């Protein structure tokens, strides 16, 4: 009984503190979104890309003075190359590609695609390999977000 009461109190406190689940959908809350709303992108890498896009777009885009929605399709692939004599991999590449469309309230649309390729040095330890893949995915999504935002800036400047 005591544990049930403690669990209930903890749940109530957690609900009031602004806690947000890591993979909560966009309807959970709209906190932190400015003029540009970034739609959800599936998967862990999609979550990382969306987070980086929100950071990059927090200051807005030049010449954009109205609300806009950014939709991004993400593809990620791990390519292993150069097998050694013992059958192990000596090098891997994480390839990421995104197609994006920014649609303004007035109906204007700006779209494009961006690509990244992140090299990964293979390790002999399976745990080291997983850590290297995770780090390269994070780095790849940061670079992909920068490329998307840079492309949108160029398109918006050209449209003015």
TrEMBL record:
Top-level taxonomic group: Bacteria
Keyword Signal among record annotations: yes
One GO BP annotation of this record: Gram-negative-bacterium-type cell outer membrane assembly
InterPro entries per the UniProt record, alphabetical: LPS_assembly_LptE (IPR007485)
Keyword annotations of the record: Signal
Matches recorded under Pfam families: LptE
Signal peptide start and end residues: 1-24
Entry GO terms, CC: outer membrane
Name of the protein in its database record: LPS-assembly lipoprotein
Gene source species: Henriciella barbarensis
